[in-house]
Design a protein that fits this description.
about 100 residues, mainly alpha, two-stranded parallel ribbon, DNA-binding
Length: about 100
DNA sequence: GCTTTGACTCTCG
DNA sequence: TCGAGAGCCAAAG
């Protein structure tokens, strides 16, 4: 369906620079809604899989969260982005977090 | 058309 | 510090 809400989610995901990550909450807030569920729900069904770097989107706790292609694959991709992950948790999460509000 | 669930987040106990 | 509950939006049943 790609509603306006989802479109914004995908757009913001694509805005995430390499080597950085963002959280569902940040995206939700940037869009205007404080609903991180809809963000994850949109990404779970995102038609731009492979186009939108959804693997750079993680939970607010620093956990990788989930991924349509598999959590393991997501971690692998993040590690390739110079992002260190330990036990499904991002090590330097606070240092590589990307805020859309700063834009 | 209403109810349930989900790749989540925050607050209270 | 850990566990349970409430809240937001959107899609599926």
């Amino acid at each position: 369906m790609t509603t306006d809400f989802e479109n914004k989610v995908y757009y913001l995901c694509k805005k995430i620079p390499k080597g950085k990550v963002s959280t569902y909450g940040e995206i939700a807030k940037t869009i205007g809604n404080n609903c991180s569920r809809a963000v994850g729900n949109a990404l779970s069904k995102n038609p731009y899989l492979g186009v939108v770097p959804c693997h750079r989107v993680v939970k607010s706790d620093g956990c990788v969260g989930g991924f349509a292609s598999g959590q393991k694959n997501k971690i692998k991709l993040l590690r390739k982005e110079a992002i260190k992950i330990k036990n499904n948790k991002i090590k330097n999460f606070k240092k590589i977090i990307f805020s859309f509000s700063s834009s």
